[in-house]
Amino acid sequence: MSVPVAKEEMEQHLPLEFADEKESIKITGFWMFLVTDVMIFGSLFSSYAVYRTSVAQGPSAYQLFSFGPVILETVLLLTSSFTIGLSIYSMRRQNKQATIAWLIVTLLLGAGFVISEVHDFVGYVAAGATWHQSAFLSAFFILVGTHGAHVTFGILWATTLLIQLIRRGFTPVTTRKLFTFSLYWHFLDIVWIFIFTFVYLNGKIV
Amino acid sequence: MPSFVLYLIHTLFPHDVRRPTELGADFLIIMSGVIIVYYLTKQKKWRYLWDEWLTTVDHKKIGIMYLIAAIAMLFRGGVDALMLRTNLALPTTPVISASEYNEVFTTHGTIMIFFMAMPLIFALWNVAVPLMIGARDVAFPRLNAMSFWLFAFGALLLNISFVIGGSPNAGWTAYPPYTGVAFNPGPGENYFFLSLLIAGMGTTMTGINFLVTTLRMRAPGMTLMKMPMFVWTTLTTAALILFAFPPLTVALAMSLFDRLFGSSFFTLTHGGMPMMYVNLFWLFGHPEVYIVVLPAFGVFSEVVATYSRKALFGYSAMVLSVLAIMFLSYGTWVHHFFTMGAGPAVNAFFGLSTMLIAIPTGVKIFNWIFTMWGGRIQLTTAMLYQIAFIPTFVIGGATGILLATVPADYQLHNTYFLVAHFHNVLIGGVLFGLLSGTYYWWPKMFGHKLDERQGKWAFWLYFIGFWVTFGPQYLLGLEGMTRRMYTYPLGFGWHELNVISTVGAFIMGAGFVVMVYNVLYSLKYGERDLTGDPWDGRTLEWALPSPAPEYNFARIPVVTARDAWWDMKQKGQTLANSLSSHDISTLEMPKNTPVPFLLGLSFFVVGFGMTFEWWIIVAIGAIGVVASLLYSAFDYDEHKHINADVIRRTESALGRLQG
Fold first, then answer.
1. Which of B10, B59, B216, B262 is most exposed, with the fewest beta carbons within 10 Å of its own?
2. Whole-angstrom Cα distance, residue B189 to residue B181?
3. What's the DSSP call for residue B311?
4. pLDDT in tens, A55-91
5. Chain B residues close to A58, C-beta within 8 Å
6. Which domain holds residue A206?
7. Domain total for chain A?
8. Bridge partner residues of B528 (DSSP)
9. What is the mean pLDDT of each run of 10 residues along chain B (659 residues)?
10. Which residues sit opposite B448 in a β-bridge?
């Protein structure tokens, strides 16, 4: 059994970011970070579940939500999850221009999502549905707002990645950064699917 | 005088921080500050401080900084405890007022848990874990430095509260609605939530860092089941941190938003539910109990094996029981509030799940005893703590089972019986364990032993002081005395027991004084450790010189057995005897960086600004945070190289390189 040779052989087939030991460890670390983020959203979802009916004098979920913007936001974010996948696919094929182009598309879709969501929130507040009104609204704003803040942070983060990619091309460090960003972005997409189902769909049915 | 100066004085130094105790503290802080600045300037040490400590990413130095911070916080928390106890010994003439008493028990609890126990654990992790697993550093050295500075500035933020603006006063659990701005105006609770949010970020990062370190950085041959037990407890504790701290973050953030931005999570109006906070808090709080105690279990597993000169008894059972404790600890949080009235079914479930934890814990207790059985026991200070721990922790655990019995809990809830129980496990388990580890690894950190005779004096004072303090409190609890009362009427039969308890607290205080003297004395006169293996140890850290060189291992060892270093010694091997000059190559090591320090400082500015709702200061701090993050995003110059010749010279000077 010659373990080292087998390891070397394996490394030849690995993508750049996994072949480098230090960067590969950072990817493990990022997964652990995502665990903590799952727990953050888990706590927020459970709070929302508890507070869902505590509407006090404020509007209920049924009265508040409208599907139009929510569908738009869902389409934008799900599409952006697909385009970040295309970006990683191009990165694996060493196609720098396509990687950058798909990353830019992802960011624009993400920005569209954030703009639509902010527009929604401003509308709610203008209609008097502030988070002071009820525990339901507090829980709604903190859950959906934390997700929106994550998307916003992701856009800023990816902008710095864009600059690094243009300057440095594909190195173990830049590919690792882009890969972890894609993990983050897919994660936010999954969280949104839960928000769409448990907050908006559920709110409209009951 | 311009009006804004008056406003500042009024806001920063309101009436309740101008009491004699606070003014005395102000004086001491300013005096010691002046002395430190004078000393650093006179000795021209500023550069040294910055280069060697404030910007370091070396896990060994970060561990020492955690240790210093933890001992300083033990002092602060201990002084708080003595103030509380003094008041209770003198019920007719209280020395501090009711409101001051509230502040003091709040900071006592918060500091002891978050700013004493946690950093002392991280100190031992940083000092021991990378050396034990044969690594050159932790997985993410820069993140490690960020964790430390976030912790340090979080601790600073909480500690300045009592001289600037006013302390938090709602207990370390900070239950709403009392933390709501309607009942508790002023900056105190803001300080509490912000300092814990900042320090909590650091703790979460530490959890991630050490989980990845233990999973990915072990020396070749060290399989999971060959890891030293302390490393196993590090792994499980890090996993607990990952799952436990996010609910705390959410609970603290919601409370802060209620106070600062008018949300309605835990208010009494607008549909808010204070009990939701209690659930979220203990969803963190119960795992937190195991976060602090599992590392102590790990220390004892190392200490008992070393000083009994025997391999740990029942290693696999120990691993299984640690994992069982890790999983079970998530299913018990409601036992902190049976009196919420969730109904018999829910309470019975959580009562039983709590009792279930006694089984793996019992397995561990028996295994430690069986490790000592037939061993050649050396009664060092570290071992004394281990031996004292076993009966103390068993009694603490047994009273925990009493509290888990739901009908009994309705009587004992929030009485001194509870206070005695959790001090029994936290002091008898956590503090004894961490002090044991500190005495055990001290030579590895500083290159000299702590004086054993003085160490044993400190031990006996702590141990006797502990029982004199908390034995009577069980009785007080059974007699109905509730916690958090600053005085009580005579004639309930509480006075005598309280006086005894206070005497015990002062005995423990004397133990602390002896311990500090022990440290200072040993700096100069302590027995130097020239071999690197003063205790005839079993694990890899003792294969290195004390203190270990910056790069730890000149060549990463290959592990073949569970007690790797003991096994090597049995075979007549050392790290040095097979090491020849051409085995050594140039190493890539992480480079010092000011970013973690500046990031911590920026978060401190944000926290301070938010405490007083001064948004311009918040904005300044936020710019600092963003700038620190941007700088490190574009910083590709993370590594330095230690030349092979430098390593050869270092190893030769240590007598560890032939030829």
1. B10
2. 9
3. P
4. 988 899 999 998 899 999 999 999 999 999 999 999 9
5. 270
6. 65-206
7. 1
8. B448
9. 82 83 83 90 91 95 97 95 95 90 95 96 97 95 96 96 91 94 92 97 97 96 96 97 96 96 93 94 95 97 96 96 95 92 92 94 96 95 97 95 93 95 96 97 96 97 97 95 93 94 97 97 94 94 93 92 94 82 88 96 97 96 96 90 91 81
10. B528
Tokens found for residue B515:
């311990």
B243 token code pair: 């799952």
The DSSP call for residue B95 is: S
Residue pLDDT, tens place only, B111-120: 999 999 999 9
Residue B646 makes CB contacts below 8 A (sequence gap 6+) with none
The nearest alpha carbon in chain B to A35 belongs to B242
Contact indicator for B392, B428 with CB cutoff of 8 Å? yes
- Amino acid residing at A28: T
Here the CATH number for the domain that contains residue A94 is: 1.20.120.80
Residue B99 token pair: 């409101």
In-domain check, residue A133? yes
Give residue A129's identity as a one-letter amino acid code. A
A191 inside domain:
yes
- The Cα of A146 is separated from the nearest Cα of chain B by a number of Å equal to 11
Rounded Cα distance, A201 and B5, in Å: 54
In 10 A of CB B446, how many CB atoms?
A: 19
| Domain spans in chain B, listed from the N-terminal domain onward | 1-44, 45-593+638-653
* CB hemisphere CA count around A47 (13 angstroms): 38
| CB-closest option in A25, A132, A157 to B216 | A25
Fold of the domain built from segment(s) B45-593+638-653: Cytochrome C Oxidase; Chain A (1.20.210)
A57 vs B257: CB contact, 8 Å cut-off?
no
d(CA A32, CA B243): 10
Nearest CB to B271: which of A43, A55, A168? A55
CA distance B420 to B432: 16
